Amino acid sequence: MLRYNAYRMQNARLIRSLWRLVQSPAVIFLTAIVIRVWAASRILPSHAWDYFYQRNEAVHIAWAMATGHGFSSPWPNTLLLPTAQQPPIYPVLLAAIFKLFGVYSYRSLWIAIALNATFAALTAVLLLRIGKRAFNPQAATLAAWFWSCLPLEAAASVRLWESSLSALLLIILLSLLLRLKDSPQTSRWIIFGSLGGLAALTNTTLLALMPFFWLWLWYVYRRRGESCNRVLWTSFVFCMLVISPWIVRNYAVFHRLIPIRDNFGLELWVGNGHDTDFSILKVTEFNQLGEIPFMESKRQRALQFIQAHPAEFLRAMAWRSVRFWVAPDGSAWPWISLLAWAGLFLALKRKGLNAVPFAIVMTVFPIVYYVTHAHVTYRYPIEPEILLLAGYTLVTAVESLGQPLRIAKS
């Protein structure tokens, strides 16, 4: 009997040690880095130019900046004229890498990918933290490891795009948001607003979340009989202060109000006009018209198509609304998304108002892609939150089956 009890105590100590290990932010961070570097080593040798430099708008703008032509030329074979096709943060970041390590060099490519991997690894650590705060340690740990290890997440980090940085900025925003509901400290609201502006200049779709985040904060305070109007307006002002220099730049260059980027008309046409002739490598129309008239002509043609074929537009939008959540074909994402939506409804039922920020992310962020067109990489910035909600569903399901995850306190 004594030997059996000693065996049980030894097993309990082993389980506690393993649990501390899998919950370790350092272990999760390093795992995410290693897997993404491994993925890059498998992809880069034979596809470096074709898949990472040639067909990438942010890269071409970075090339133009690094070679002294300013923020211009989003596609190959276009005139070296100013552009607002991309938000500025990620192209500027790539331009800095090009200046330091060589334009279109293999070393620059590795530096940029390593930076993306670092963004993703930091996201994993923050996902663990916010998951513990908003849900429970088991769901948080499961989500952080999924984010760190899933092949699709690793492959997306290899792409020279803003997705990894956008995912990091969003998880930081959510972390701050959950703190602001209990903190009227002005400095935190200023940081939140400024970070929202930075996120908008990285991925414009993230800007759509900010009004709903502020509205949620206002309602939380109002429900408690308190007011956050002063700090809320302060947060809004700082968000606008961060964005406004880019708006001023666009107005000075294009002589019209372009809040951040001007390509919505093109994206609307690509998704709804069946423009099979459009290619970023064949941009004669773009060069002939100039950027603003080109984008406007695409918008007009897309709207004409939608007005002439409303039923087809609605069918396409319904298809994109599904495609956004289940792509790519043959992956686990249909099941992950289903678990995430189940987790959201479960969280709203159990946690009420505290789960609303996750509902905002899940419902508001994809809308523009339902209307325009959906690509598997567009979902990436909100995938940490999706994985957290899916993990919450799995943990709750196990507990409800009478098998609670009894993990000793770390």
Characterization of this structure:
73% of the residues lie in helices and 0% in strands. The protein is an all-alpha fold and 410 residues long. The protein has a domain at 179-257. Helix 2 runs parallel beside helix 6 (137-149), helix 3 packs across helix 4 (89-101) and helix 12 runs parallel beside helix 14.
The count of strands amounts to: 0
Mean model confidence by pLDDT: 90
Uncertain spans: none
Structural class of the secondary structure composition? mainly alpha
Distance between the termini: 27 Å
The global form is globular
Please work out how many helical segments DSSP would assign.
Answer: 19
Largest sheet: none
- Give, in order, the helices and strands: HHHHHHHHHHHHHHHHHHH
Radius of gyration: 23 Å
Helix content: over 70%
| Approximate strand percentage | under 5%
Which helices and strands occur, and which strands form pairs?
Elements: H1 2-22, H2 25-54, H3 57-66, H4 89-101, H5 106-134, H6 137-149, H7 151-158, H8 163-180, H9 186-200, H10 210-223, H11 229-254, H12 264-272, H13 284-289, H14 291-308, H15 310-326, H16 333-351, H17 356-364, H18 367-371, H19 383-400
Helix pairs in contact: 2-5, 2-6, 2-7, 3-4, 4-5, 5-6, 5-8, 6-19, 8-9, 9-11, 12-14, 14-15, 16-19
